[in-house]
Design a protein that fits this description.
This protein has two helices and 13 strands, in the order E-H-E-E-E-E-H-E-E-E-E-E-E-E-E. By secondary structure, it is mainly beta. It has a four-stranded antiparallel beta sheet with strand order 4-5-6-7, with no helix packed on it. It has a four-stranded antiparallel beta sheet with strand order 8-9-10-11, with no helix packed on it. A three-stranded antiparallel beta sheet has the order 1-2-3, with no helix packed on it. It is globular and about 55 Å long.
């Protein structure tokens, strides 16, 4: 984000628990040197979480995904920065643990994440859509920060593609900007055929 650099290491630790490393820019005006600040982990991390698989920064918030959590159902964590300078910054995990609107094994919630100010988008590319049934069609869950309670509130409806097909893997990549969310559907073949 210009002042901080975040690096995920999803295979770190015992059996791929995962970790994230934060660096800060020592002097944004006169040079481009970066210095290690801290290592981020979560206390409930277990083998196979893959914490740090996808990461994103915006202002004083960092969102870090663990798509391997709970038999690959996935979850994501938000860290908030405090401190008057970059060098003395403390990044603390917020109380809200982000999960999917429809949690299921092998959904891989958190395969992609993006944050812009108070909006977070999380890709769920392996999620199965219903009515009609479409395996691995995928979707994106959106969360907005309630500044009064400091809770990240999930939107009641995920972002889906109206004509999504099985194995489109919608949400494999996401990007949030001012007033928009870009969503990748990496195996959409444009011909209304499945990619089986």
């Amino acid at each position: 984000n210009g002042q901080f650099l975040i690096v995920g290491s999803k295979f770190h630790g015992i059996q791929d628990t995962g970790a994230v490393y934060l660096y800060y820019r020592t002097n944004p005006v006169s040079d481009d040197s970066w210095k290690f600040l801290t290592k981020l982990v979560v206390t409930n991390g277990v083998a196979g979480d893959l914490f740090g698989s996808s990461v994103a920064l915006s202002n004083d918030h960092a969102v870090i995904a663990a798509p391997g959590k709970s038999t690959n159902s996935g979850s994501a964590y938000v860290f908030k920065r405090s401190g008057s300078t970059a060098a003395t910054s403390i990044w603390s995990v917020m109380s809200s643990v982000l999960t999917s609107s429809t949690s299921a094994p092998a959904n891989y919630f958190g395969a992609s994440v993006s944050i812009f100010r108070h909006v977070i988008a999380v890709g769920v590319p392996n999620g199965d859509l219903t009515s009609p049934a479409r395996e691995n069609a995928g979707w994106v869950d959106v969360f907005v920060l309630d500044t009064n309670t400091e809770a990240w509130v999930r939107s009641s409806s995920p972002l889906t593609i109206s004509d999504a097909k099985a194995y489109d893997y919608t949400g494999g990549d996401v990007s949030v900007g001012p007033g928009f969310i870009l969503v990748a559907s990496s195996l959409d073949d444009h011909t209304k055929l499945t990619d089986v």
